[in-house]
């Protein structure tokens, strides 16, 4: 997931691409080795800076999708065909290549494993990236906090981390995963494709009386619609946290 870069006094670090593999036909998982990485909280992001030989520089921000793991930082990058950065990261960058990375950034859209409140996660497309970090940290910490994830995608082929999500939901009774398809549902699906609506969020998210934390991430229009639904359903707006891109 990419956003406009956030400026600050954090240190730029020269980082090397340790591994790269396909998440979907239009997205890649990129794992960077970042010397001196201080660690991060699930939900934070990094700034990425590319500099051409003529000195031209461009920055973008990407959510961290991994749990803390020493000097390794994983990003899930969705290719934007007319973009300046994502096509390079997805199609040109090779293992061993270097770029500058700064972070972690952000302190509002984060989940802490010490918080006992139930959690509803809602992702649209590549907005799954920071929520995946939360799912992974929950498992790493052995947390029993119940998680419900509602993930909206266009088609079955657009589901990032599909195998991992299926495995985690199958093995962990405290994690419920609900996929919503907006363009084409899997063959044999009992529900036709359609946009994420009030009924689905009310059914598969935690009810307001449970006082859950709600994290919503995705395109701007998606995030605004979903967060408005939760507030209309009686959730405390202060507990509905959002990240948006686009």
TrEMBL record:
InterPro entries: Cbr1-like_FAD-bd_dom (IPR008333), FAD-bd_FR_type (IPR017927), Flavoprot_Pyr_Nucl_cyt_Rdtase (IPR001709), FNR_nucleotide-bd (IPR039261), MRET (IPR050415), OxRdtase_FAD/NAD-bd (IPR001433), Riboflavin_synthase-like_b-brl (IPR017938)
A Pfam family reported for this protein in Swiss-Prot or TrEMBL: NAD_binding_1
Reported cofactor(s): FAD
Keyword vocabulary terms for this entry: 2Fe-2S, Iron, Iron-sulfur, Metal-binding
Residues annotated as domain FAD-binding FR-type: 10-111
Keyword Cell inner membrane: no
GO function terms (MF aspect): 2 iron, 2 sulfur cluster binding; oxidoreductase activity
Record PROSITE patterns: FAD_FR
Recorded coiled-coil stretches: none
Name of the featured protein: Oxidoreductase
Taxonomic path: Bacteria, Bacillati, Actinomycetota, Actinomycetes, Pseudonocardiales
């Amino acid at each position: 997931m990419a956003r406009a870069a956030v400026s600050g006094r954090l240190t730029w670090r020269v980082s090397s691409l340790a591994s790269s593999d396909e998440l979907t036909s239009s997205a890649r998982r990129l794992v960077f080795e970042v010397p001196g990485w201080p660690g991060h909280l699930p939900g934070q992001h990094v700034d990425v800076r590319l500099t051409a030989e003529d000195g031209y520089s461009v920055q973008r921000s990407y959510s961290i999708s991994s749990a803390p793991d020493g000097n390794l930082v994983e990003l899930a990058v969705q290719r934007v065909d007319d973009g300046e950065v994502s096509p390079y990261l997805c199609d040109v960058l090779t293992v061993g290549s270097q770029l500058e990375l700064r972070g972690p950034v952000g302190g509002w859209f984060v989940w802490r494993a010490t918080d006992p409140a139930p959690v509803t996660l809602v992702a649209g497309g590549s907005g799954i990236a920071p929520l995946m970090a939360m799912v992974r940290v929950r498992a790493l910490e052995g947390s029993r906090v119940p998680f419900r994830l509602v993930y909206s995608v266009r088609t079955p082929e657009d589901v990032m981390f599909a195998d991992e999500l299926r495995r985690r939901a199958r093995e962990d009774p405290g994690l419920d995963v609900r996929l919503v398809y907006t363009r084409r549902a899997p063959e044999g699906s009992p529900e036709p494709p359609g946009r994420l609506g009030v009924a689905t969020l009310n059914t598969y998210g935690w009810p307001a009386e449970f006082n859950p934390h709600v994290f919503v991430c995705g395109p701007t229009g998606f995030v605004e619609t979903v967060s408005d639904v939760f507030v209309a359903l009686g959730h405390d707006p202060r507990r509905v946290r959002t990240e948006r891109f686009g």
